[in-house]
Amino acid sequence: MAAAPPLLCFGVIADIQYADAEDGYDFGGCRRRYYRQSLGLLRDAVEAWAAERPPLAFVLQLGDSIDGLNARRGAAEAALERVLAVLGRLPVPVHHAWGNHELYNFSRARLARSGLSAAVARPLGRDCQACHCSPAGDCQAYHFSPAVRVRVVVLDAYDLSILGREPDSPRYQESLRLLREKNPNDNLNSPAGLEEPQFVEFNGGFSQAQLDWFNEVLKFSDENQEKVVVMGHLPIHPDASDRVCLAWNYKDALSVIYSHRCVVCFLAGHLHDGGYCLDSHGVHHLTLEGVIETPPESNAFGTIYVYEDKMILKGRGRISDRVMHFRKW
After folding, report:
1. Which helix (H) or strand (E) holds 24?
2. What is the Cα–Cα distance from 159 to 108, expressed in whole angstroms?
3. How many CA atoms lie within 13 A of 313 on its CB side?
4. Nearest to 249 by CA among 191, 186, 189, 199
5. DSSP secondary-structure letter at 244?
6. 300-306 and 284-287 beta bridge pairing
7. Which of 101, 205, 103 is CA-nearest to residue 164?
8. pLDDT tens track of the chain, all 329 residues?
9. DSSP letter string over 131-171?
10. How far apart are CA 252 and CA 268, in angstroms?
């Protein structure tokens, strides 16, 4: 008897951080970053995805598509144009998370008018009857249903952040107050001595409005027995990350997820070494290895196949294959 085909399959990639620059190193000066070669690895990923059978339904780009180095060189627009041109060769939608490096290069207002905007990828039509497609304001969260009883939620992990916002805006002031309350260091990018080391400037968090919206989406999915995949740039589980790279209020996001039964997986980037855990509620947390620290002879992307009872990750290069079984309803 032939095995049942997948309900759908989709591509995943994180932390491309392209810049037209020679190789460099991370902020600690220890880890090599392949700025220029990352675009070639993205091209290889696009070629592999285009050859997938069955064909992909979409691709999830988990944030940090270009590096902050571009802002200092005046090259942000050109770098983003190159990345989007490569992704534009795909015949399927690409859904983007915003990471800290997008916000080093552009304001949120500028990103909202770019090819990384939620408005570019967000589907319209029957999907909007589930609940509000997006939270109010400039939050970039949205959801869509690519197959029957399957939903994808894209979260905005920098909804609370001082990155990319005008200093006189209410959300900037709210975020700065929270950050200074949790991080007394002169350098807000330093986690030194912090009880909650995720409270650094290069991270962010979820506003209460976004969490309330997220709760309503999951309520709808529970009622309709949907399986939900959630995506955001920042990890939300300590066992799938180091303590520094988590979203500021990751516990609040987990609390929303744990009050429902529908979420099967949370996909993130940000931590270039990657990570994985199956938590106590049966949710898989997969943090993808970053393209930026991948040698040009390797790669770091994957294809996820969704079945009735599991998801199967077929990894390339640094990303390992993985079978992620769903808990029983």
Report:
1. strand 24-25
2. 10
3. 24
4. 199
5. T
6. unpaired
7. 103
8. 567 899 999 999 999 999 999 999 988 888 999 999 999 999 999 999 999 999 999 999 999 999 999 999 999 999 999 999 999 999 999 999 999 999 999 999 999 999 999 877 655 444 544 445 778 789 999 999 999 999 999 999 999 999 999 999 999 999 999 999 999 999 999 999 999 999 999 999 999 999 999 999 999 999 999 999 999 999 999 999 999 999 999 999 999 999 999 999 999 999 999 999 999 999 999 999 999 999 999 999 999 999 999 999 999 999 999 999 998 75
9. S-SS-STT---EEEEEETTEEEEE--TTSB-STTS-TTSHH
10. 16
Q: Which of 269, 318, 270, 273 is nearest to 296 (CA)?
A: 318
Contact between 322 and 289 under an 8 Å Cβ cutoff? The reply is no
Which tens digits make up the pLDDT trace of 175-213? 999 999 999 999 999 999 999 999 999 999 999 999 999
The 3-state DSSP class for residue 227 equals strand
SS3 219: helix
Rounded Cα gap, residues 194 and 121, in angstroms:
38
d(CA 318, CA 41): 12
Report d(CA 322, CA 241) in Å as an integer. Answer: 17
- Please, which residues bridge with residue 291 across strands? none
Q: What is the pLDDT of residues 232-270, one digit of tens each?
A: 999 999 999 999 999 999 999 999 999 999 999 999 999
Rounded Cα–Cα distance for residues 153 and 230 (Å): 5
CB neighbour list of residue 146: distance below 8 Å, 6 or more residues apart: 8, 10, 57, 58, 152
